[in-house]
C-alpha cells in the first residue's frame, strides 16, 4: 500500500458532480491495410481483453483507493473498464459528441480509476486512406497528470509496425525503464528538511515580486489578482464539449525561427489570438489581458508517474491588437516565469507557487468567488514523440487529442500534444455557459494563418 500524495488527495477532494477529476485523451489509429471485417473483430476483441478474460491489470491500472492509501485491486472485471462502441456515421463530429458525453461522467471509486473506450468504424482521413478506429482513455487525476499519462501510453505502444503484443493494453508490462515508473518517496525527515530549507529562498523571491509589482512590470511578475473577470470564469454545469483540431507543427516552427522565439511561444500566441477573437465575437473582451496558467513538469526524468507539476502564470497579451506586440509579451512572461523557476529547487518553486496562489486553490475548492480567479484558463503542453511513429499491434497512431478538467470559474481548458509533424489541440469547454464555443478550433486555425500572413506573405492579418 502507498499513501496518497497531497496533490493526489486534492484532486479527490475537488471532485463533485460538476467537476469530474480525470485526464483523458482521444488516440486515433489507422488499421493495417487490407484488414477484413473478421480481422477487425478479432483485433478489437484482443485489444479490450475479451480474448483473455483472466488477464489481470498491471500498475497503474491495478491501483484502487483504500481510504488514504492506494492498494492493488484484489478483483478485476474488464466489463467495468473496457467498452466497444461502433460509430454510426463514422464522422469525427460523432466521435467528439460521444466522447463529450463520456467526459461528463465521474469514475467510480469502488474499482481502479480508469476506463478505456474503443470506437470502431471511424471514417478514413481521406479517400484511399486506411480504415481508422479511436481509443478514449480516461484516468483519474489523482493517479497521474496529463504528462505522465502521455508517457505511460507511449511506453505501452511499439515503435515497430510488425510487433504484436498478445496482452491487452492494461495488462502489459511497462517495457522501458519500468523500475522508474514509481512515485518518488522520501522519508518524513527528508520532506521536513526540504521544506524548511525552502523558506529563505522563497521569501527572497516574494520580496522581489513585490518590488516588480510596485514598479508595474506585469510581464516580469503576474500577481494572483491580475487576471480580469471574463466569460471563461463562470460557474459551470455538468456539460462538457470536447473540441479538436490538428495543425502542422512545421508551420509553428517556421514562425518561431523567423521571430527568434520558441515553438511554445507561437502556440500560446495562436491560442491567444483565438481567445481574443472569440471574446470579440461575444462582445466580451476584457480591457486587461487574460492570464493563463501554463503547467510545467517538475520531473527529474520522463518516466515517473503521479502528479509532479507546478504552473507558470502567463500574460496572453489579449489586450494588444498588434500580433507582434502580443507574442513578445507572451514570450517575456514565459521567460520570466522560467527564470524564476530555474533559481529555485523543486520544493522551493512549489512552495513559492503555493504562497502566491493558495487562496486560488481555496476559492476553487469552496467555489466562493467564481468570477474572481487568479487565472482565466489553463493551457497545457502535453509532450509527445516528435519523430518516431508508434503502433498498436500494427495499427499506426495518427493523432492524439488530450483532454483535462474544468472547475467552477474555469469553463475552458486547452491542451495540446505534439506527435510527429502535428500539433493536436484538445479543448474541453462547458458549452452551456460559453455560447458558440465550437467556433474556437477554427479561430485557432485562423490565428496560425494570421501570423503566417503577417510574416511570410506581407498580408494584412485577419482581424481578430
Shape assignment:
globular
Q: What is the CA–CA distance across the termini?
A: 53 Å
Work out the helicity level: 25-40%
Integer tally of domains: 2
Second rung of CATH, namely the architecture of the largest domain:
2-Layer Sandwich
GO biological process, one term: response to hypoxia
Keywords: Acyltransferase, Glycerol metabolism, Lipid biosynthesis, Lipid metabolism, Transferase
Pathway: Glycerolipid metabolism; triacylglycerol biosynthesis; Lipid metabolism
Enzyme class: transferase
Report on the structure:
The chain is 34% helix and 21% strand. The protein is α+β, with helices and mostly antiparallel strands. It folds into 2 domains: 2-180, Chloramphenicol Acetyltransferase (2-Layer Sandwich), CATH 3.30.559; 210-386 and 402-456, Nonribosomal peptide synthetase, condensation domain (Chloramphenicol Acetyltransferase, 2-Layer Sandwich). The chain has a 6-stranded mixed beta sheet with strand order 5-6-7-2-13-12, with helices on both faces. Strands 8-15-14-11-9-10 form a 6-stranded mixed beta sheet, sandwiched between helices. α7 packs across α8 (263-281), α7 (249-259) packs across α11 and α8 (263-281) crosses α11 (440-456). The longest helix is centred in the C-terminal third of the chain and has 21 residues, at 346-366. The N and C termini lie far apart (53 Å). The model is unreliable at 175-192 and 301-307 (pLDDT under 50).
Amino acid at each position: 500500500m502507498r499513501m496518497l500524495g497531497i496533490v493526489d488527495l486534492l484532486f479527490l477532494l475537488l471532485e463533485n458532480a460538476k467537476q469530474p477529476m480525470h485526464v483523458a485523451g482521444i488516440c486515433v489509429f489507422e488499421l493495417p491495410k487490407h484488414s477484413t471485417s473478421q480481422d477487425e473483430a478479432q483485433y478489437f476483441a484482443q485489444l479490450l481483453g475479451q480474448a483473455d478474460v483472466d488477464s489481470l491489470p498491471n500498475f497503474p491500472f491495478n491501483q484502487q483507493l483504500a481510504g488514504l492509501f492506494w492498494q492493488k485491486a484484489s478483483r478485476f472485471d474488464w466489463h467495468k473498464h473496457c467498452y466497444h462502441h461502433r460509430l454510426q456515421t463514422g464522422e469525427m463530429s460523432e466521435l467528439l459528441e460521444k466522447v463529450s458525453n463520456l467526459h461528463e461522467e465521474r469514475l467510480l471509486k469502488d474499482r481502479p480509476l480508469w476506463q478505456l473506450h474503443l470506437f470502431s468504424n471511424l471514417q478514413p482521413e481521406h479517400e484511399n486512406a486506411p480504415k481508422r478506429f479511436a481509443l478514449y482513455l480516461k484516468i483519474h487525476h489523482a493517479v497521474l497528470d496529463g504528462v505522465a499519462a502521455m508517457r505511460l501510453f507511449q511506453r505501452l505502444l511499439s515503435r515497430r509496425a510488425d510487433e504484436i503484443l498478445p496482452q491487452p493494453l492494461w495488462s502489459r508490462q511497462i517495457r522501458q525503464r519500468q523500475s522508474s515508473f514509481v512515485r518518488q518517496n522520501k522519508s518524513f525527515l527528508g520532506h521536513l528538511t526540504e521544506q524548511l530549507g525552502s523558506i529563505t529562498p522563497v521569501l527572497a523571491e516574494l520580496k522581489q515580486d513585490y518590488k516588480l509589482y510596485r514598479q508595474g512590470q506585469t510581464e516580469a511578475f503576474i500577481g494572483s489578482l491580475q487576471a480580469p473577470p471574463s466569460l471563461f470564469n463562470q460557474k459551470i454545469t455538468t456539460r462538457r464539449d470536447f473540441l479538436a483540431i490538428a495543425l502542422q507543427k512545421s508551420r509553428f516552427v517556421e514562425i518561431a525561427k523567423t521571430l527568434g522565439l520558441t515553438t511554445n511561444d507561437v502556440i500560446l500566441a495562436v491560442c491567444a489570438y483565438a481567445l481574443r477573437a472569440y471574446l470579440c465575437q461575444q462582445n466580451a473582451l476584457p480591457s486587461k489581458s487574460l492570464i493563463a496558467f501554463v503547467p510545467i513538469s517538475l520531473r527529474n526524468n520522463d518516466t515517473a508517474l503521479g502528479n509532479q507539476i507546478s504552473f507558470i502564470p502567463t500574460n496572453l497579451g489579449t489586450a494588444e491588437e498588434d500580433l507582434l506586440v502580443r507574442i513578445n509579451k507572451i514570450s517575456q512572461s514565459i521567460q520570466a516565469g522560467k527564470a524564476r523557476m530555474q533559481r529555485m529547487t523543486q520544493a522551493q518553486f512549489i512552495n513559492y507557487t503555493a504562497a502566491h496562489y493558495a487562496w486560488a486553490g481555496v476559492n476553487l475548492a469552496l467555489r466562493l468567488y467564481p468570477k474572481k480567479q487568479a487565472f482565466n484558463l489553463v493551457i497545457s503542453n502535453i509532450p509527445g514523440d516528435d519523430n518516431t511513429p508508434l503502433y498498436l499491434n500494427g495499427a499506426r497512431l495518427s493523432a492524439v487529442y488530450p483532454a483535462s478538467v474544468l472547475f467552477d470559474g474555469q469553463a475552458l481548458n486547452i491542451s495540446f500534444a505534439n506527435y510527429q509533424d502535428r500539433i493536436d489541440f484538445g479543448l474541453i469547454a462547458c458549452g452551456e455557459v460559453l455560447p458558440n464555443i465550437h467556433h474556437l478550433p477554427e479561430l485557432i486555425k485562423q490565428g496560425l494563418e494570421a501570423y503566417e500572413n503577417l510574416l511570410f506573405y506581407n498580408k494584412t492579418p485577419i482581424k481578430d
